[in-house]
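Changelog excerpt

This revision adds worked examples to the README so contributors can see how folded entries look when concatenated. The first example is reproduced verbatim below.
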Amino acid sequence: MYIVIVGGGQVGYYLVKALLNENHEVSLIEADIKAVKRIEEELGSIYIHGDGCDIATLDKAGTERADIFIAVTGRDENNLVACQVAKHRFNVPRTIARISNPTNDLLFKKLGLNTTISSVNLVLEHIEGEIPTHPITRLTEFPKGNIDVVELKIPPTSPAVGKRIDSFSLPKGTIISLIVRKEREARLATKHTTIEAGDWLIMATHPEKEEYLHALFTTGEAIPAQRI
C-alpha cells in the first residue's frame, strides 16, 4: 500500500516509522528543512521537501497513485487544504486529517474528508468516570452516508432515568438500537424499553445531532428546535 503523509513532526515521524515497519511504501512531505535532514539521517530518502498544500509538491510525491493520504501537521487549516487537494485533484480514495481543535471535526467531514483524528477527543473518550462536558463517544462512522454509530452513558442524575424510549423526541434519522446494562447485559432497544442509570445507549445518528442527544439524555437541557 502506498501512503503519502504531510507533516514531519513527532506525529508524522513516528507514523512513518510504524508504517515502514509494516512494509508499506511511504512518502513524507515536510517544509521544514531541519526536520527533513533528521528524517533523512534516520529513515533514508523517503521525504519530499516542500509544502503539502502545493499541487506541484503533491505531484512530485506521486500522490495520484496513493492509496491513503494523511495530513498530520500542527495546523488544522493546512491539513484540510492538503486533504482537499489530494482528494479532488489527485483522486486519492481515502484521506485522513489530524485536527487540534475538536470543533473543526464536523466542518472537515462536511467538506468531504473521510476521517478526522482529534487528540483531544481521543483522550476524553478514554477517561474513566463522569465528566459533565464529555461528548458522545463515536464508535464508528460511515462517511458516504453521513451517519455515526455512537454510545452515550446515562448518568444517575439524568432526567431520562425511569422513562421509556418512546417518551423522547429523537432527531430525524436517529435510532437507538441497543442498551448495555451495568451487568454487561445487552438488549435490543424498543419503544417500551425503560432507561436506567448507568445504561449505555448505542445509537445511529447524524453527526450534527450528537450535541442534541447528549443534552437530551444527560442534562435534559432544551436545544432549539432547528438543531433537531
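The second example, added in the same revision:
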Amino acid sequence: MENSSRAERRYGAAKPDDRRTPYQIDRDRICYCNAFRRLAQVTQVVSASEGSVFHNRLTHSLKVAQVGRRLAEKLLQDSPGLAEKCGGLDPDVVEAAALAHDLGHPPFGHVAERQLNELALKHNLVDGFEGNAQTFRILTSLETNRPEYYGLDLTRATLNATLKYPWFCAKDGRDATQNKRAQKYSVYDIDKEEFQFVRPISKEEQSSSLQTLEASIMDFADDVTYSVHDFEDFYVAGLIPLRSLLQNKEAFSIFIRKWSANVYDRQLKEEIYNKQSDLQIILELYPLDYQANPAESLPHLKRFSSGLIQKYIYSVSITENKGKHGYLDRPLSTELELQFLQEIVKQYVIFNPRLTTQHHGQRQIILKLFEFYLEAIRTKTIELIPLRFLRNGFSHKLNHLQQNEPEQVRIAVDIVASFTELESVTMYRRLLGIDQGSVMDYII
C-alpha cells in the first residue's frame, strides 16, 4: 500500500493548517466521538454498573491502545525495513484502531450481540449482527463528524487496521462452529461501498482476506489485554479460586479436559496436553494469598501482570511469510498461555449462575427495545426515534424504507446497539410502565 494511498480519506483532506499527521487526526476523531464515550457504560465481562472493580469497554479499549502502541513502536524499532515491506506500520494507526475496536459492542456485551444477531436473522436480515461489523459501520456511516458526510472519514490505513475479519458474512453455515468466516466478519452487505474504498488498494489486497500488519498488532494487543486484565479482575474479586485449583490435581485435570474438548486447532490441543505443567507454573506465580492479605499482595500482582504483558509483547515479531495472523508471527506458546487465562475466566466467571441469570434479563431488555424501534420505523413514528439518528434527512429516508424490510431491521439494530446500558434499562422500564420517567428527560 503506497503511503499516499494509506493516508487517503474518502471525503477529503483535513484542515490545511493542521499540523497533525493524518493518523493523529484519526486517533483524535475517535477519542472525541460519541460512540467512544459511550463505552464507559458497556459491559466488558460483567455489567459496567458493577463499578470500578472491573474493566468496562472504555477502560479496556484504553489499555488495548497502550499495549498496541508500545508493541508497534517495538516492532518498528526492531524491523523498520520489514515493516515497510509488509505494508507499512505507524503507531498512531495501531492506537487509533485499538481505541475504535470495540465501538460496535452493544449494551450488555456478547449476550446482547447474540440476541441481536438472532433477532436480525429471524427478521430476514441475512448478515445478522456482529460487533466487529458494527464497529466498521459506526466509523464509516453512523458516527457524526461533519454535516456534509456520514461517519468519521478516517484514512484507509486506520479503517483497514480496525478490520479483524476483513470479509463479509458467509451466508451459508452461520452456525458452523469451526468456520470463523461464518462466526466472525467485519463488514455488512449494506456497507459494501465503504469497504471497497478501504480494501481494494492493490491487486494483492483485492484477493486477500488477511489482516494488515497494523490490524494484526491491534488484534494481538486486544487478546493480551483482556486475557491478563480480565483474569486479574476476577482473581482480585475472589471469583477465581487459584489456590484450590492448584492444590487439587484432579480439579486441574478436569479443567484441562474441559478446555481441550472445546479446542478445534489440532496443534493447540496437543500443546495443551504437552505443556500442562508449564501452565500450572504460571498460576503458581500469582500471589496465592491475595484474599488473606490483599494490601501486601496487590503490588506483587500488579508486577506479575505487567511482566506477563511485557513477555507477550516481546514474544511476537514481523514476518514476510503471511500466515494465520497476517504479517505478525505469534508463537504457539503465547497463544496457549493467552487462551489458558481466557478459559479460566470463562469456566469460573462467564458460566457462573450469578452471571447467567443476569444474561436472561438482559436478553429480554434487548428483545423489547428491538421490537419497539422496529415498529416505530415501520409506522414512521419519528418522535420515538432517538435524536442522534434524526439527521441528514432521516425522516425522508423512512418513506423509502416501507418496502425494504432488511433496511428497516438494520436501522432498528443500529438504534438498540447504540445504547449505553443505563439508557437501555431506563428505556425498558419506561416502556413497561415500571418507571414513567419524566417529560423533562432528554432522550438522545
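Reviewer comment on example two: The chain has three domains: 3-206, 222-351, 354-431. Residues 354-431 form one domain.
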